[in-house]
Amino acid sequence: MKANISLLLLLCMCTWVCHAQSKMESISATLIGAKLGDVVILDDFLTMDFPKIAYDKAIIPGPQFMISDDPEYIRIPEAIVMQEQADAGAVRLYVYNVNGVKEPQKMPRKISAVIKNLGNEDMHLRMLRYSSQKPSMNYFQIGKQGLYDYFSSRETNNVRAIKPGEVIAIDERLEKQVVLYDELVHGFYEFVIDQPALISVLQTSPDKEGPKAFHEIDTIIPFSHVNAGRGIFPVSNYKIKGRDTIDTNNGVSQLILADGNDDAWITGTIGEKKEFARNVGNYGVLYHTNIKWKSTGGKGLALITWNCRSEDNQWCGGMGLTMEMFDENMKKSVIQYPSDQLVTKAAPEAILIGVYKPDPSKDIQEINFTYSPPGASCLPTPLILVPIDL
Q1: Contact, 348 vs 42, CB < 8 A?
Q2: Which of 61, 203, 204, 288 has the fewest CB within 10 Å, making it most exposed?
Q3: Residue 56's Cα: distance from chain center in Å?
């Protein structure tokens, strides 16, 4: 009797192993046959239970970072929604606001970011990276394209002089844009200033210049600690380094960033009173990532992601992102994912981000990319490494 039970268990185990092997062969064939950036269908595969890749996270010196996303929907026709003082030096500014005016009626608005020179000498503002999207209700497209433009941008000779006490618009393109009800304004900037400054994001009428509105508006909307948040933050860049070398023989693993648990939200302050601020999502933060891997038996690795939050609520129904990818020579490519459609929706859909082939001349190889949490998408966006037969 015991022998029969043992034989039955052995047969069940062999059946399970054969099924799992066949499943991975099917997954491997699907990923090898797809184009980079495509949405692929991986039936009965995607889960949040894959082993997590352990990593070390170090702060990289970077710009003062400001975000304007509290409130996300600006309900007051004339108001300031973010106002922070910046020291001379580098600044990163992320504007993510929507015209949400319904009372006394829906109306077109202007949402603009302005800067005031608080110094005693002329201030020079030199734009380093610039991303400005036309206001739209297609939030996913704006989020993907905004990151794409930011990663791709390299501004040269873009310097403006600002007299002491003078106020100018940071983004002259936004000054010309009309924002209809429920349309999103998405601006992502990095610049250097040589005097202390006051930076504000405001909403006003389309026919009024942002700097003029700044002098006339006396309402700063109180923060509510919802959405991503707002304020000024001392952390803007991280270096992510895997602790162990990924071996293709060890199966599937995943890197989880910007989840608020393994990777905590950055904190800072809001306004003159320096009240506590948190960037829920770490939107606008750059993760410079390095993972080492080795091939066993000639296997390669596929890097994929999927929308693990699709069933949580109506806002999580789609996910799209943009990343900086680096090849073995550290040559950069900026790629929107997915590339064959706007977003991926839910399992069994996944996005093929990259395929890494073994180099017989190297025992250890590297995967390098820059990730930033994609605006309009729910987090986290798991980055999954799948061993594949090439």
Answers
A1: yes
A2: 61
A3: 19
Distances in Å between the Cα of 390 and the Cα atoms of 129, 171, 232 are 39, 48, 47
Domain ranges of the chain: 31-60+236-388, 64-233
> Is the alpha carbon torsion for 79, 82, 88, 89 positive or negative?
negative
Q: Residue 36: is it exposed, middle or buried by C-beta count within 10 angstroms (0-12/13-18/19+)?
A: middle
What's the N-to-C CA distance of the chain in angstroms? 45
Short-list 293, 330, 317, 322, CA closest to 378 = 317
Q: Find out whether 183 and 111 touch, Cβ atoms under 8 Å.
A: no
Task: Kindly report the backbone phi and psi dihedral angles of residue 29, in degrees, each rounded to the nearest multiple of 5, phi listed first.
Answer: -65, -40
Question: Are 173 and 132 within 8 A, CB to CB?
Answer: yes
DSSP 317: S
Whole-prediction pTM: 0.93
Structure tokens at 296: 């066993």
Token digits of residue 381: 């966006």
Alpha helices (H) along the chain: 2-32, 139-152, 210-216
pLDDT along the chain (390 residues), means of 10: 57 50 88 96 97 98 97 96 98 98 97 98 98 97 97 93 98 96 98 98 98 96 85 98 97 97 96 94 98 96 97 92 96 97 97 96 97 95 96
**Closest to 97 measured CA to CA, from 128, 127, 135:** 135
